[in-house]
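Structure ticket #2291
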Amino acid sequence: MSEQIITRSEILPIRTQIDLVHVRQRVRTWLSEERFTLIDQTKIVTAASELARNALEHGGGGEMEMSLLAVGARKGIRLKFSDQGPGIADVAMALRDGYTTAGGMGLGLSGSRRLMSEFDIQSSPGSGTVVTVTRWK
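Resolution: structure written out below.
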């Protein structure tokens, strides 16, 4: 099996509503440059938007690290959202459709998980949250 190589990386802050716009724009720019299909671009930007909004609204802000990956001829993009917020007490519950603590539709985490090839979340009360998602071509 080939080793996973990071070919490009960038970190963007998530501190304001304007930063959410920048996250969506940068992700879409990278995806377009890397010739992801329009359908994949839409799915990945949607997931990025939801996860960035979660980092801002529930985590009090944080950052997104965006990386292009290569494993042999296969290419992908990994987005890692991290915050130092209150964390999530019950991650399994937070991943259920319809679960919300903010009055939304409760589809941000679960929907993002469905849109991406890989999904990982690390969180516990008082330690913040890190969500890492990857989409392969």
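Closing remark: The beta strands are 4-14, 62-71, 74-83, 118-123, 129-136.
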